[in-house]
Amino acid sequence: MDFEKFYNRQIDYVGFRTDPAKREEYTITVDWKARQLEKLVAHSKPFNNILEVGCAMGILLNNLANRLSIAERIGLDISSENIKVAKELYPGVTFYQGTIEDFKSKTPQKDQFSKFDLVLLSDIVEHIPDDIKFMKEVSGISSFVVINLPLEKCLKNRNRKYGEDDPSGHLQWYDEEMAVKLINTAGFEIINSFTMNAFNDKIYLDMYRKKRRVRLKKKPVHLMLFWEVFYLIEDNLKLVHKGFSEKIFGTNYFALLKSKG
User: Fold this and answer.
1) pLDDT at residue 112 in the model
2) For 113-146, b where at least 16 C-beta lie within 10 A, e where not — what string?
3) The pLDDT of residue 170
4) Is residue 206 pLDDT above 70, yes or no?
5) Is the pTM of this model over 0.85?
6) How far apart are CA 182 and CA 51, in angstroms?
7) What ranges make up the beta strands (E) of the chain?
8) Closest C-alpha among 102, 75, 104 to residue 87
9) How far apart are CA 234 and CA 223, in angstroms?
């Protein structure tokens, strides 16, 4: 699989790069993630530098770094188109195109930190063919990692075909137990963690419902009414019980990790 070509052409990323409305929606989602990640490290020691692996256009990297007052920022992404936009948006930040192996082997040593203070992994691990190998690579370049991992092993995704044919490029799916096992196997200890769904956030939820209303208005009246009732039931189910909701709809796993190495 040519991952660079895939993510250069992937429909969501193309929209984020070229459509201002989709960019705004993406930025709202990213801001929610940044606020959750900030909670994990708010009381940790100060960090002087940060590397995000799978940085896309650098929006999350810079949002979180601003919140944590981290001056030195490096972003790495497989997509040359993502990196092109990232450099335009954040000219003062260093960006590299390629994999983590490319970064380690091709980047001049003078431009590398021997070990990063903090590595950011957000919505990236599920895209990696060998997730354990990848996480072990990361453990070798930083003592601390903040991770956001979608927990998609749930009823809603029971028929989703994960792998190279997945339109979002998700090769793996996880529940919380699988996430913890991956982290421990890769040589990390979990300092702090929690699960959280974006639907619990008013700003995100308002944006999501606005998009949904626009989509429903394009349907015939009988279908629009059907889906309005369906979504009303779905929205209320998400509020009934956190564990129940996660089993049906999935959630996100946020964690601060420390390398044992």
Assistant:
1) 55
2) eeebbbbbbbbbbbbbeebeebbbbbbebbebbb
3) 96
4) yes
5) yes
6) 21
7) 49-53, 72-77, 94-97, 118-122, 144-151, 188-196, 251-259
8) 75
9) 16
